[in-house]
Amino acid sequence: MLVIKNLSKAFHQQAVLKNINLTIETGEIVSILGQSGSGKTTLLNIILGLDQATEGQLFFNNQDITTVPMEKRPFNIVFQDYALFPNLTAYQNLTYGCKKKQVPQNEINELVDLLNLSPHLNKPIQQLSGGQKQRVALGRTLMTKPEILLLDEPLSALDGVIKESIKQKIQEIAKKLNLTVIIVTHDPEEAMTMSDKIVVLDEGTIAQCSTPAEIITQTSNRFVEEFIIQQLTLKQQNIQQLFRQAQGMSYE
Known about the structure:
This protein is an alpha/beta fold. The chain folds into two domains: 1-74 and 146-212, 3-Layer(aba) Sandwich (Rossmann fold); 84-144, no CATH class. Strand 7, helix 6 and strand 8 (180-185) form a beta-alpha-beta unit. It is 38% helix and 24% strand.
């Protein structure tokens, strides 16, 4: 369990996060949702250990990790651009660092099967699709056996069926491994369809922290309503319009 208490962060006396209090249970998928500049990436970096809070504390399994360096925290991240090695094959990327971690071959094989990567192991990274690259990046991170998996905009470069398959794969992995997953996203639809809990940030504060169903039925304030409900409604209208146009029907 990760507990964040009274956390604040300022850069050059400019407040970016303000009195964040949050509890994330083991095995939960939690989305940190917000517009650009809301503080979501800063919060992710503080959890990971890339940055330090100005005030407040972080506890993981009842241990204070506020000042523990990143390399000593049992967390790992998949970055938005995947950060794969272009000169290595999919398998070499996937198993990079395995000798140092002494990961048994049977565990590597299980992860390959879980991620449906068997047909692509010997391919150069340049030959992989966006979804395949994302699965390789996920696998390489999972090889380190993190207790919390952090994902930075994991679906932003993907479209359509590929995006849906990666959503399902992340949920499947979290359930199978009882893995805590924290996702940073600007997309309300991603957060609503992937998460057990959504933390909506607005100008460095938590506007609402609820289940997807509660956000729909018990919206806490005008910002949450406008940012989430209206965006989802607009996206649905756009989908309906495209569908009708594809069917050769008029759309008013």
